[in-house]
Amino acid sequence: MTEPTEKSGSDYTGADAISSARLSSQYLWMSILVAILPLLIFSALYDAYTSQLINRITEEQLATRMTAVQNEFRVYLRERQHELQSLTDQLDTPEIFTPEGQHLISSELEDLLRLQLDYRTLHGIAFFDDQKQLIWTFPDQALRHIEQLDESTPTTSVFDQTELIGPTPHSWARPSVLILQMPVNSHTLKDAKPGYIGLILRFNTLTAFMDGVIQGGIYQPLLKVADGRYFDIVGQPVQPSDAHFHHPIIQNWSLHLVQNQALVASPSENMRQWLILMVVGTAAGLLVLHFYLSNRLNKQVDKLVSHVEQVASGDLDTPLPPSMATQETARLNQAIDRMRGQLKQMIHSSLEMEKLASLGQVAAGLAHDIRNPLTTIRTSIQALARRESREDHREILHMVEEEIDRVDDVIENLLNYTRPHPPHAESIPVKMLFDSLLALVEAAARRQNITVTNHCQTDLILWADYGQVRQILLNLILNAIQAMISTGNQIQLCAQQDGQFVKISVKDNGPGIPAEHLNRITEPFFTTKPAGTGLGLAICQVLATQNQGRFSIDSNVEHGTDAHLYLPLPSELIDE
User: Fold this and answer.
1) Which CATH number belongs to the domain containing residue 365 in this structure?
2) Is the pLDDT of residue 318 over 60?
3) I need a surface site. Which of 189, 374, 464, 516 has the fewest CB within 10 A?
4) Do 442 and 550 have their domain in common?
5) Are residues 286 and 279 in contact, defined by beta-carbon separation less than 8 angstroms?
């Protein structure tokens, strides 16, 4: 009985040892699995989470930049449209749209065409007949850039009532060009068949706008034109692979982004491999390191996402705080802030252009719909005043007539701002100009105990439209008189030569302009006067620019205001 008992005990001990060894191994492997598996799962989730966040940030930023490129593209074309419209207003004879038209243009028109060609983005200007057949170009050598249009059927796209023809086939000898074509509907051509005029644009000027989309070489921006061709940022044709993003620019034109696969691999791939290798040695260390990196990166990404969403929500005025995190996120933070500034500037420019265009339409409608009944009312009031026998009634009728004239002046100011007449420049003696202004304002200044003096060289001459310059200076002097109603004292008219310009200054020692108003005083409809329209200084700004000059105002509260007008000298004096 003893042997069986001992044998049985021996067998039990071995079984326990085997069971214990297996159980220990199970605990060991289960402990390792419990330590490794959650970390591996967490690492995978972490990698997917961060990749998703970074992709979302990149896609939002790319979408914003592609929209910005679209706005730059459209703004550039609209500027060229305005230049074309200005040229069509100068075409005064239908013979220009004939093969001999190049020899029939006036010297003024030729000077205007040469001035237009000062832009580096233009090769020349093309003239077409009513069948859109090319007649001649200015200058003659510009013809070689568009000869290839006759060799193939050109592709045409429409943009805001103008046509984009091309681009032409690319070669090293003749880079691609684009024609922005517009029909000529000038009233000076009367019943003649209207022709067409076009600007020969450098095509690589348009493709260069795509530079704002480049992000460290990860994406290659390409411009797809109406005929299906693709061009890179320097205007060379390319054969792209599949694009990851595309955005419409204008009709049948779109911006495409092709991903560089060699640079797309996420840095988290290598990080995950090192994490797996380190987990084998110490699961606890990896857990600590993982949580540390996860929390830190999540905080940085959350801040970046918050900044991008802040910009996307429309807050373009609040600058982003400087990032104290890693260099990469700091650079991304700076790029987002630059994007915010550029987007704000582009939106502001677009709004200004739309506002001016709408204002011009409103002004034309007001002039037509208000002036006609005003004329009838004025005529009726004058007839009633002549027949009225009572003096008090006649006085009331005269007051009504004065108010009608005031309304007409407001309409005239609005028209002058939105559609100023082209200047007719001439040589103007500044001394004579000052004498005529003093004669006009002397009575108004004397009533308010204000002395108006002038300091001017007797032989000083400027080159500008006499009526428009007189309007600018008269507006500035009257503004100074009105500003000094309660202070009196002195207004000075000064003029001196400043390089190739004549600098005219209107100085007063009135109350001055507050700093918060100084940057807005030339904005249309901004005024601090109860009965003002806010168009006076805005008109001064427009007229100064029309006459190839510039206009600025310096002011200190309680020390007065200095308004400076710079106008060019006559060309013969500049040559001397």
Assistant:
1) 1.10.287.130
2) yes
3) 516
4) yes
5) yes
Give domain status of residue 336, yes or no: no
Q: Which of 146-150, 325-329, 529-533 is predicted with the least confidence, judged by mean pLDDT?
A: 529-533
- The predicted pLDDT at position 444 comes to 78
**Does residue 112 sit in the same domain as residue 218?**
yes
Gyration radius of the chain's alpha carbons: 37
Are residues 104 and 203 both part of a single domain?
A: yes
Specify the long-range contacts of residues 349-357, CB closer than 8 Å, at least 24 apart: 349/75, 350/71, 350/75, 353/75, 353/78, 356/418
Place of tokens 């086939």: 169
Question: For residue 539, is it within any domain?
Answer: yes
CB 554 within 8 A of CB 513: no
Let me know if residue 547 belongs to a domain: yes
Question: Which of 357, 389, 418 corresponds to the end of one domain?
Answer: 418
Which helix (H) or strand (E) covers residue 138, if one does? strand 134-138
Residues 310, 404, single domain; the answer is no
- Do 182 and 165 form a contact (C-beta atoms < 8 A)? no
Residue at a domain's end among 364, 391, 418: 418
User: Do residues 396 and 390 make contact, with C-beta atoms less than 8 angstroms apart?
Assistant: no
Number of domains comprising the chain: 4
8 A C-beta contact, residue 560 and residue 484: no
Q: Specify the CATH number for the domain of residue 446.
A: 3.30.565.10
Q: Structural domain of residue 502, as residue ranges?
A: 425-575
The three-state (H, E, C) secondary structure of 161-197, written as one string: CEEEECCCCCCCCCCCEEEEEEECCCHHHCCCCCCEE
Which pLDDT does position 17 carry in this prediction?
A: 38
Distance, CA of 485 to CA of 482 (rounded, Å) = 6
Residues 237, 251 share a domain:
yes
Residue 219 backbone phi and psi in degrees, to 5: -120, 140
Residue range 135-165, pLDDT digits in tens? 888 888 888 777 766 556 678 888 888 888 8
Q: How many helices (H) and strands (E) does the chain have?
A: 12, 18
Task: Confirm whether pTM is higher than 0.85.
Answer: no
Structural contact between residues 232 and 204, judged by C-beta atoms closer than 8 angstroms = no
In this structure, are 466 and 568 located in the same domain? yes
Give the pLDDT score at 4. 43
Q: Note whether 181 and 198 are within 8 A (CB).
A: yes
Phi, psi of 260 (to 5 degrees): -85, 105
Segment 439-446 long-range contacts (CB within 8 Å, at least 24 positions apart):
440/474, 441/474, 441/477, 441/478, 441/481, 444/478, 444/481, 445/481, 445/491
Considering the domain architecture, whether residues 229 and 352 belong to the same structural domain is answered as no
Query: How much is the average pLDDT of 178-188?
Result: 79
Whether 548 contacts 422, CB under 8 Å: no
Q: In this structure, is residue 332 part of a structural domain? A: no
**Euclidean distance between CA atoms 144 and 177, whole angstroms:** 11
Residues 558-575: tens digit of each pLDDT = 778 889 999 999 887 765
From the CB of residue 163, how many other CB atoms can be counted at a distance below 10 Å?
Answer: 17
